[in-house]
Design goal:
alpha/beta; eight-stranded mixed sheet; about 15% strand
Length: about 350
Amino acid sequence: MKILVTGAAGFIGYHLSKRLAERGDEVVGCDNINDYYDVNLKYGRLEQMGIDTEAVKSEISPNLKYYNSNLFPNYKFTKLDITDKDNLNKLFHNEHFDKVCNLAAQAGVRYSLINPYAYINSNIVGFANILELSRQFNIKHLVYASSSSVYGLNETMPFSVQDNVDHPISLYAASKKSNELMAHSYSYLYNLPTTGLRFFTVYGPWGRPDMALFIFVKNILNNKPIDIYNNGNMKRDFTYIDDIVEGIVKVVDHPPKPNKDWNGHTPDPSSSVAPYKIYNIGNSKPVKLMDFVEAIEKTLGKKAKKHFMPMQAGDVPNTWADVSNLSKDFNYIPNTPVNTGVKKFVEWYMNFFKS
């Protein structure tokens, strides 16, 4: 099976690419390697995939140039932005993909308050390109990243894919909700099988520097205070990266089918008469923020200097994933305890940054 993974130098994209390559799929990764955060981390992930990153760094003009892995004969990478429709079209034309995993997106709730157009370009225009080319080239299954942020002002816990999600509180969340709507229209009009995955606070080795775990570990080690929002009265459904990848792979292998029981009078938001599906993918065990901090302190053997602050704009106090549909359909059982996940992240961090 040949699979395109966009956002392949990103946190989840790297881990997914590695897993797919290890199991024998032919994988093509693409990423624009933007500077939203330290590009050295992105190049570091590509090096783990056996890519000559010095060659990638020297690339100037946007073109469809491939870099073959020296570790995985079934993996290659191209530096490509999904908003570049012409070169993206060439990629689809050349490769004849069976399936697509679109993880390329402008991430981050808080950054959307500063640079909203980045989200429109990547998450809306870029995703429209992915949808249209998936239609044109008869992709058998398009899996794409949504987000727990779509739940917005919802307060009923746990968050369910049967819930209404029409009240996002950040442009990032709105862009992800838009992806789900756009995907449904293509599933309905063109019979394109699409599955959206609402990720819940993914963490682990090679994680993003703008995420809480990365920031907390870095600041504690450097004797700097950590910002604790909403005065610590928050819970997050922290989900370890290996559990996330396990769920993605199971979904990739099973394109959705139309729901024969779907009823327009009582519509199920997570399915359709079209080959369309939405799943939550999380740990389903929310952790108090202060307990998460304590797990980091215990692992580091060092207390944090805490700076308590009010809630950030665009943020929500709690997240909790109802993953019953994913468990029922694919026997999805996340099983990495937070203490274990934090320990693995810290081990990676100390090694990567030689702390």
